[in-house]
Write a structure and sequence with these properties.
This protein has 11 helices and 15 strands. It has 414 residues and is α/β, with parallel strands linked by helices. It folds into 2 domains: 171 residues, VC0802-like (2-Layer Sandwich), CATH 3.30.2130.30; 178 residues, Vaccinia Virus protein VP39 (Rossmann fold, 3-Layer(aba) Sandwich), CATH 3.40.50. The strands form 2 sheets. Strands 2-3-1-4-8-7-5-6 form an 8-stranded mixed beta sheet. Strands 11-10-9-12-13-15-14 form a 7-stranded mixed beta sheet, sandwiched between helices. A hairpin with a 2-residue loop joins strand 7 and strand 8.
Length: 414
């Protein structure tokens, strides 16, 4: 794996190295909030626990935890199911725009920003007192700008695309939480995907689906409708334990006044030392030749072409290629942005799995809940998730080998 090859540490070496690393770089802990997608809270909490976070608490589409600056860098680099890593700096009560303005104005913004820098505001509200997030962002901007103008005579500029400081405002009823956004652009933007198709899957969603399906890199993997390759790439990164955001060019915290580049690079290298080799095959099919070309570009961007093969092939004409267990995960068309003959298409999925893919755990996400009945197999389990604003289900079909496969499949026919 070019760029990621390190000799794996033995257990005793890893324990000693981690102890020394944590002892040397232990800083002052503070509360952070990791935002995620609906249904991924448990996955994210587990990720944070494995990375070493403290005082982990799950909420709705978020997980709070504690750590130091070094852990904040680590969470941004390594968390597969996080969208943002926020650092709360102040909380106050607010019931009207004057409360908001005064609460923001009282914060000493010179700790985080200078008059020559730029800033931007993101706001989310769940409140009976406010109903326009853009107005909240505007009032917050005014309070920050006025403080600098009154104290310095000049004010920092707003830059919504590439600010030096991104401030997050979250109002839940009468409680306003002000946070610094350490991530910047959403963490689903890994940095490897430069070419996409009509209906690309979000990278965080892909990683979460893989983790929910139990994928751990211990067998062969197939995405039979791979599109631009997102699921394949995320599967390879999990299998090789490659940090999720190792290909990103920037995190917002790199522009903060207290950013420690030496610490960031040390943490990055420490994470890369924990990558592992993968001894099975990851393969993708797609009937669209253009999609295959895009997938190859993205796989090459991620430096994973030695682990992933993509082939121009129709899944419905394919057969399982190798003996042993096979893990399938795919995101078929829902008849939303890609038009299909729903009954025929989903029936072909079931028939192909039954006839040609024994000894396989097949997982599929779809927002076309009505179409599931045409597959002809009983899905267990059905996990509720969202693909964007579409309510979807992640389902599993277990295909057995030989006579067990045939008898079980028949019993499960709807």
């Amino acid at each position: 794996m070019a760029g990621f090859i390190f000799r794996p540490l033995r257990a005793v070496e890893r324990k000693t190295a981690n102890f020394a690393f944590n002892l040397y770089y232990m800083g002052q802990n503070f509360k952070m909030v990791a935002k995620t997608l609906f249904g991924f809270e448990e996955l994210l909490a587990k990720e944070l626990q494995q990375l070493g976070a403290l005082h982990i608490r799950k909420g709705m589409r978020m997980v709070s935890f504690e750590g130091d600056n070094g852990f904040m860098y680590k969470a941004n680099l390594a968390c597969r199911t996080a969208i943002k890593i926020l650092k709360p700096i102040h909380t106050f009560q607010v019931k009207n725009e004057e409360d908001l303005y005064q609460g923001i104005y009282k914060i000493d913004w010179s700790q985080y920003l200078s008059e020559t820098q730029t800033f931007a505001i993101d706001a989310t509200i769940f409140s009976d007192y406010f109903n326009h997030s853009k107005y909240i962002a505007l009032k917050t901007k005014d309070a920050i700008a006025d403080q600098f103008r009154n104290l310095k005579g000049v004010r920092p500029s707003v830059d919504i695309d590439s600010p030096d400081l991104r401030v997050n405002i979250h109002i839940n009823q009468s409680e306003c939480t002000v946070s610094l956004d350490s991530s910047g652009a959403s963490l689903h933007l890994r940095g490897y995907k430069t070419d996409t198709n009509i209906a690309p899957i979000n990278e965080v969603l892909a990683a979460g689906l893989l983790l929910l399906s139990g994928w751990d890199g211990q067998c062969n993997f197939l995405d039979p409708m791979c599109g631009s390759g997102t699921i394949l790439i995320e599967a390879a990164m999990i299998a090789c334990n490659i940090p999720a955001n190792i290909n990103r060019t920037e995190f917002a915290c790199e522009r903060w006044a207290d950013y420690d580049n030496a610490l960031f690079e040390t943490i990055r290298e420490n994470l890369l030392k924990k990558t592992r080799e993968f001894h099975f095959k990851i393969k993708g099919y797609d009937i669209d030749f253009t999609a295959i070309k895009k997938a190859k570009i993205n796989i090459n961007n991620a430096d994973l072409d030695e682990y992933i093969d993509v082939i121009h092939e129709d899944f419905f004409d394919s057969k399982k290629e190798n003996e042993g267990k096979l893990h399938i995960l795919f995101n078929p068309p829902y008849d939303e942005r890609i038009s299909i003959r729903t009954e025929e298409f989903y029936s072909d999925i079931g028939n192909t799995l039954k006839r040609n893919y024994p000894d396989t755990n097949a997982w599929m996400i779809t927002a076309n809940l009505e179409a599931l009945k045409y597959v002809g197999l009983k899905p267990l389990p059905k996990i509720k998730i969202y693909n964007g604003n579409l309510e979807a289900r992640l389902v599993r079909y277990e295909m057995y080998e030989g006579s067990r496969k045939s008898s079980t499949a028949e019993r499960n026919d709807l």
